[in-house]
Amino acid sequence: MPSREDAAFYDLDDEGVLAFVQTTSLQARARRRLTIPLSRTKFYSDTREDGMKRIFIFSLAFLLTFAVSLPAKVKVNPGVYTNTALGGDFDFKFWKEMFKGGYPGKPGNVLQALGEGFIFNQAKLVNVVPWAAPAPGSSDINVYAYKSTYGGGMLTLNPSGPWCDAGTLKATSMSITNYSSQDPPLTGILKFHLVITGTFDNAPDYNFIVHAQYEGQPEVKYDPYTGLPAFQRGMDADVAIEITGPAAAPSKKKGKKAASFIEGDF
Asked: How far apart are alpha carbons 210 and 206 in whole angstroms?
């Protein structure tokens, strides 16, 4: 049976956790001086203060993380927008085709483009078939030799362009078709008409269609070890982006009609 001198007190366990300890009479005598009320000890006061600080910091971090994780609301501006080469609304930077498949027209090649307020990337060539007609759905009269279909791809539009005032529009499910001619490959004059259509992932009420037309001699880089073409790139193109959907509140950003190679409003 425990004696009258058995005692109980608070102590730190092996892992530094505050614990309630029951002692025998011998232990109680050895630790009698430690059985003062815990609330009067500096250790308890400091521990409690530190604990409150930790709770406050954890709560603040949780609220910040939650706020950051909330998607920004996108304010879409439907309309037809063209790049400045056509007297329009945004600057086009470059387009680039990386020959991951080893040569022009090979599956696995990756197409990308960059401009003010938009990024198009991760589009991989799936197949190429002969074509002997203009690109459908436009007033482009060029006759193209090939029709190329791409899979995957991501289109991102941000408020740096005229198409939205807030948030970022993203699309990952789209149809990507390129009509092109180049004879001979790599060194001849390249002509293409790229058509991209789809719906925005985070604004499903809005559809888009992109027309991009190029004619010129692109820059070609070769792999120094294999001698195979690594990529080709052009620093200009005529681009028109149309976004359709519910009417939005008036925006300060004004869209202009597309160039002549777009037939009407698509």
From this structure: 13
Quick one: three-class SS letters along 200-213? ECCEEEEEEEEEEE
Which domain covers residue 82, as residue numbers?
Answer: 75-244
For 168, what's the count of Cα atoms within 13 Å in the CB-facing half-sphere?
A: 11
Both 126 and 233 in a single domain? yes
Q: What does the pLDDT look like over 69-100, one tens digit per residue?
A: 434 589 999 999 999 999 999 999 999 999 99
Query: Which phi-psi region, left, alpha or beta, contains residue 9 (left: φ > 0; alpha: ψ -120 to 50)?
Result: beta
Q: Which two tokens stand for residue 198?
A: 């789809």
Which two tokens mark 77?
């501006």
| Whole-number Å distance between alpha carbons of 161 and 115 | 9
* Whether residues 104 and 232 fall in one domain: yes
Residue 130, helix vs strand vs coil: strand
Instruction: Confirm whether 259 is domain-assigned.
Output: no
pLDDT of 43 higher than 60: no
